[in-house]
Amino acid sequence: MRIVLVSLALLVVSQAWGRLDQDHRVQEPAYGEVAYLYLQGEYFAALTRAQMALERGEVKHHREDLRVLLGAMYSAYGMPEDAEQVFDSLLGTQVSDMVAQRAWIHLAGLFYRQGKYTQSLQTLNEQIGQPPVELAEIYYSLRAKVLMRLGRYAEAAESLDAFAKENPLNAYLRYNLAISWINGEQAAQGQEWLWQLANLPPGEPETDAIKDKAMLALAIDMLRSGKEQRALALLAAARAEGPFADESMMLYVRALLMENQAVRALPVLERLDQFSIQRRPVQEAQLAIPLLYDQLGNEKAAKKGYEAAIQRYASLDMYLQTVGENIANGEWFAEMLGEPQWSTAMDPVPPFLPKRVSSFPTFYSWFASAEFQQGWNHYHELMRQNNLLRLWQQKMPTLNTMLDAQDHKQTAMRPEARALLETLDGEDYQGRLNGLSQRFERAVSDQDPLPFATPEETRLWLAQQEAQGMTEGWGELARPDMSAKLDFYRGLLLWDMQEDIVPRQWQRQRELQTLSELLEENDDLRKRVLYAANRVDRLEHFRKELPELEVMLADLERRGEQLMRRQQYALQASAFEQLTVTRNRLKRFSATAHEGLADLVYRSLRARRPNLSGAVGESGEAQSGEQ
Amino acid sequence: MRHVVIALLLLAIAPLQAAELDKDLADFKREVLEVNKRLLLLEEELLFPADTQVGIYVSLDVGHFFAPDSITLELDGEVIASHLYTEKEVRALRNGAVQRLAVANVKNGGHELVAFVTGDGPKGTEIRRGVNAQFEKGHGRHFVQLHIEDDSAKQQPRFRFRDWR
Known about the structure:
Chain B: It comes from Alcanivorax nanhaiticus. Chain B: Residues 1-18 form the signal peptide. Chain B: Keywords: Coiled coil, Signal. Chain B: Residues 18-45 form a coiled coil. The complex is a heterodimer. Chain A is built from 27 helices and no strands. Chain A is an all-alpha fold. Chain A has a domain at 428-534. In chain A, α2 packs antiparallel against α3, α8 (136-149) runs parallel beside α10 (168-183) and α10 packs parallel to α12. Chain A starts with a helix and ends with a helix. Chain B is α+β, with helices and mostly antiparallel strands. Chain B folds into 2 domains: 1-47, no CATH class; 53-163, Immunoglobulin-like. Chains A and B meet through α2, α3, α5, α17 and α20 of A and α1, β1, α2 and β7 of B.
């Protein structure tokens, strides 16, 4: 049954997400990462990652999707108040239809888990109506479960038909619905569905378990309604192994006895007798065997059978008394717990099953119940969380060391960074660049080619200016053609420089642009250095936070241990209740065996002394005479 | 006698406990989640500051032609992560989830990533593939995605790195 529950949980989880064969939709890594953990059922890790993503603002596009996921995870992780808060806040804001519909379905699921069936159905009907294709399966399965709880079986059946028949959840729900019908007013329909389930092709363990359960339920129904022959035919085909083998065999025996086929029933009972006496059908078999021998006229074997039954009941009762003492002193729980695989709440869930201790068969059915599974998983989860808390406590010195290292680095780097910033401030790069830009603008507007001259042109220009100055200084002594030549060279140089003035200006403009970009980058880096150099508050915040977290860890660990003890006591109390029920049953069985034995002895005595019946109870004299 | 008294006490307090236990468990979980979140944020801040952090993610779209078995990831010639996939993990990837394969610290500038991927291809054939890419680390956190997608025309998987910022 546990396998079935686990499979169903996984199935429901995948349904809540469900994307197979659709385009890739994840656009932000944080959201995809949360989904990765969620789809593997690692709720604690997924919840932590989701909270981190929301706090750091890592999701924008998927923010609402993530909140729906968060609510669904709170609900699945046993935090209903948090889930309701998330859904209420989500549905109170403007969100897309798809997000809203998913939120409403999860909210309806939460109501279902809380036992608020009417509210759940109302939410589904009023807020969803016709679900979109991608939500159809989760919607209809939830609706079917709610309707069954409300006893509206026909509508539940319609909802079940709306999603895939090969789905194991479908078979599980159909079984529940069939049982409800058989116990209600539509027995024929219930039987029909049970037949369908019993005839499913064998396969996975959960399918086989459902098949076995369906066959058992059918057989019980047939025996109840006096169809012993059909029950016999059905039970003859039941599996002699598997979780329901002993119950099937006992039912088979009952059916045979009802059909007066005691000879055929005896080997079945003897085979059943090989199972553990802690199982109820085997306890019943202890009574049935002598009864059968008695029916077959074998009084000796019947007497031996009763005596064996009384003796086995007595020794089982003594054993259960010891188990009870062990439950009370905690030994039983420790033995059942064994050495669990070490894990933390952040790790994948390791297998966590009760150990097959000697008393295992006594609690077999209880172990398979939802009540036990829930308590046992809570205990496991608490243990894992306490491991996580201890792990963080062990990490605390390392975190402090890392913080010291950062502090040290900051202390060493800060003066260096501040000195660099001061140097940069003194350089006034921006002012210099502005000056260069102004000069460029002026040269362009004046059409002055000189600022754009090559070094060679500048050299020639300066030489020409110098020669011209000198020529002018000579006055009349200068040759007249010299001034004309110099003017010609000047004109030629200017012509050369102005010929490609536009590409030259453009080149300079690009250089100025590059400088401006470099300065922007520099400014960005300066800001970051400035921020880092003055980022004392961050380290101070960490310094304050770490001791605070250390105290919280210690407090939580203490509370976790208390909760583990409380969960353990709750489980022990339930186990003790189971034990009490079994011991009371044993007392009844033992009394019946004693009665049977007494009756047998009495009949035997009466057969040997026919006048005994008249003597007993008639007069004191007669009795004393016998003595 | 003492054990009997303890057992009776257990039975008496059980219903009272059950009523409060669920609520106390939820409160406890809420507080553990809170403290865990704060510690993880702090640890990440100390180990992988945003300015040097690079995260490498794996996604599978849709996985008709490939189911990953293992991935080994190298960053600038150094192995930084190796992962063997479970059935559950492959199923989660196929359903659109994204796996954070590794987080590392790198300086600003160019870096090289190499991934060696093995897995099952179409009709159960074994696929071994190497894929590499360069990326430019700038300011702030940087995400790189190893995207495995179906190439319907070739009926083969296609592997590529892409920046995810």
